[in-house]
Write a structure and sequence with these properties.
This protein is of the alpha+beta class. Helix content is 22%, strand content 41%.
Length: 285
């Protein structure tokens, strides 16, 4: 009986050691996370693997967890290979925001296979290269707070006008209160890489004042913003990533303050590109 118990105890201890070892990231592999400009609108996060082992690293599953999200962020592919000495980033779609949870460090869990045949599951706290996770949480929670009070969308139709003799694009923000309690104050709208606000005197402004408070029980209304081209080279449109996403400074009655980023519809984006081309004397596509 004593030998049986000893064998069982040894098996438990060995199993525990095996599980602990499998959770460690193999030597020579390091992880980080970051966001490109295109990732912001797509709501994805790049999980980057640096493979400094002697052979190919194969990743067959990846999950990212952080308390700021309502669920697990799953990498949507089945597998990928990372050669020795290479860095490869895997885009992971992010779940919705959990603004009630206290922030905790993000962890990445992944299944791997090494060239020497070793395989397992590892868990790591990736380096947040650009400290983006706190920024994502802030942006998410501002958007959630605003949306609980008012739905804000840019109209799909662009209106062309002049301000002090200068051609401008007028963009209507359609405000539809939800009927809930609380309020949102739209403070101002800022420039983008492609467009700059224009003041009543026709001069470029760092930001355009709005100063409009919306209560959840208000009637629907609109806010109009006037923009002119921020730059007039052909690369401004050809390489544009966020030029038609408008940063609006907001404060909410539940204590959030920051920027709400309003993306243009496909129709509005195309109309804005044509406006910049025409105003700048660039050829239309």
């Amino acid at each position: 009986m004593r030998r049986v118990l000893t064998a069982l105890l040894t098996l438990v201890l060995l199993s525990g050691c095996s599980a602990a070892e499998s959770a460690e990231v193999p030597k020579g592999i390091s992880l980080s996370v970051y966001q490109n400009r295109t990732d912001v609108e797509a709501r994805t996060l790049e999980v980057s693997f640096l493979n400094e082992t002697d052979g190919v690293l194969t990743v067959t599953r990846l999950e990212l967890r952080a308390s700021q999200f309502v669920g697990v962020a799953l990498w949507p592919r089945a597998s990928t290979t990372i050669p020795s000495g290479a860095t490869i980033s895997l885009p992971v779609p992010l779940p919705g925001a959990d603004c009630a949870a206290a922030p905790t460090a993000a962890t990445v869990e992944f299944d791997y296979r090494l060239a020497n045949g070793r395989a397992g599951t590892a868990v790591a706290e990736p380096v947040d290269t650009l400290t983006r996770l706190p920024g994502i949480r802030e942006d998410d929670c501002i958007a959630v707070s605003v949306a609980s009070v008012v739905d804000i969308r840019s109209a799909s139709v662009l209106r062309l006008s002049t301000v002090a003799g200068r051609p401008v694009a007028e963009i209507d923000l359609v405000l539809t209160p939800t009927g809930a309690g609380g309020s949102v104050t739209l403070e101002s709208a800022s420039s983008t890489t492609l467009l700059t606000p224009v003041g009543p005197d026709g001069v470029d402004a760092a930001e355009s004042a709005i100063d409009r408070e919306i209560v959840g029980t208000d009637a629907p209304s609109t806010v109009t913003l006037a923009y002119a081209p921020n730059r007039c080279d052909a690369h401004a449109i050809a390489e544009d990533k966020r030029g038609t996403i408008f940063p609006v400074a907001v404060t909410t009655s539940d204590g959030f303050a920051g920027h709400l980023y309003l993306a243009s519809s496909v129709e509005l984006r195309g109309a804005l590109y044509d406006f910049v081309r025409t105003t700048c004397g660039l050829p239309l596509d």
